[in-house]
Amino acid sequence: MSNTIDNNPILVSICCLTYNHGEFITQALDGFLMQKTSFAFEILVHDDASTDETTKIVQTYQSCYPDIIKPIIQKENQWSKGLRAISATYNFPRAAGKYIAMCEGDDYWTDPTKLQKQVDFLEKNPDYVITYHDAMVIDDNEKVIKKSKMPDHNKRDYTQKDLIGGKTNILTLSMVFRNLDSMKEQAEETRYFINGDNFITAQLGLFGKGKYFPEIKPAVYRQHAGGVWSDISKEKKIANKINTHYWMYRYFKRIGNEDAAKLYLRKLSGSVSLSDKNYRFILVKHGVFARIISGISQFFLKF
Predict the structure, then answer these.
(1) With 79 labelled, which of 6, 46, 120, 149 sits at a CA distance of 20 to 30 A?
(2) 206 has pLDDT over 50
């Protein structure tokens, strides 16, 4: 059996976020549909009120695969309204699969056996919670910028501590992970940062380890002007990363995981230099400096 339902229970829910990906969404959907599996899967698309041809293309594919492709077409753009945990809000809660795979509408898969390989491993290894692989980077013209997006030292399995502590570089478009109840939580902290993949892997780390698959053909990550992350300046990326660490601390503090909370505060204390005026300016500009310094101060006042 390939990508059909055939009255079998859905084992994998492919979650795809898209916005104005009219030039690219066809490749993403074809990459999903070409998967050769022994199980049924569904494709959950969240279209965030696209203004180009994206919606029309998604609806055309849905008409051809009505039992597989299940879109949500927004009338108002949720990202511009401040919503950040879009997958956790709209796709994860409706995911029927035992496992979740992720890939945004401007990226795509190239290996038709990727889902089967990742799911087979998770089925046989309950101590692992997430699987992943590499990707190449291309530009708007399909030119390869990097043959490998993952640094060599990250091409390995991860321990639970690695996952929880963010000592990873797991590419969102490569993830297949267990559909845990916690993934459906719309944690309040996710409203304040855009690095959602870091939050997902840290949450998953509470329940198991990570497996890297070098044998899976690299997927394709597209770097283009309309990308949410690839279009951000280096300075903003620095501020966003530190801001994410702060809210990860707040999250683990709230759920009572003191070890993880302390770990993220230590990461903050090591990355924020109070004497570096340029660094401090970046953080002030993006509204995170006061919160971070307050959090670090409260932590170290306990000792």
Answers:
(1) 149
(2) yes
